[in-house]
Amino acid sequence: MAATPAWPPRSAPRLFVAGPLVQDAxxxxxxxxxxxxxxxxxxxxxxxxxxxxDETGEWAGEVNSAGKRDVVLTLRERxxxxxxxxxxxxxxxLLKKPNFDLVLxxxxxxxxxxxxxxxxxxxxxxxxxxxxxATIVTEAAEQCARTALPQVAAPVKLETLLRDWPExxxxxxxxxxxxxxxxxxxxxxxxxxxxxxxxxxxxxxEERALIRAHPMARAITLGPRILRxxxxxxxxxALWMAVSGDW
Length: 247
Description:
There is one protein chain. The chain has 247 residues and is of the alpha/beta class. It has two domains: 14-80, CATH 2.40.240.20; 88-244, Alpha/beta knot (3-Layer(aba) Sandwich), CATH 3.40.1280. Helices cover 30% and strands 27% of the residues. The protein is built from seven helices and 13 strands. Strand 3 and strand 4 (58-66) form a beta hairpin. The longest helix has 16 residues, at 229-244. The chain is elongated. The relative contact order is 0.14. This is Ribosomal RNA small subunit methyltransferase E. Its EC number is 2.1.1.193. GO terms for molecular function: rRNA (uridine-N3-)-methyltransferase activity.
């Protein structure tokens, strides 16, 4: 006798929607998400769709109807509560659009709690499209089965970030001129933390001196090679997650 297939299947599409979601509620999906479900994934009545709301967690919904303009589901079961993520911020200088898009995507996949874009003197960009950034992190969270979206803050100048920095949060500064070994510094720390990464051309000397003078800043080295901004952000975040136990 054949085994009963698992429900919902692991291949079920996954979407973030507005919450809060509750047991047995009917949820109507419209717009681009409805097009994705009906035309790309070709869902039909009885199929499963996984919904997350960044509040209550992850739910299995059953498709009631799938039309051209909307898809209607009934929530059958809560699969997981909203996950707890490490209290880790990524403070990354703005880069060229494709490079910063990569930072947003991979930081989400790696589990950061917040992404703080920075404006520094050598930045090639000084603006961030908030709607585009939200779409990137949401799609990344859907892809990696994350149930908690990272916060993407509005860009701020480096001087503003340092002036308003919380006294309870360590600020690990990826300094290409040298510092303590990142892995050792991460392992020795417990509590809220953040990583500060510069732009394509790095911080200038005045900015570097300002950072090093900050009481919560800790200069770290990411190895013998000069890394691109997106590489430093992704690599150091992965290292933090490995050392802190999230991996």
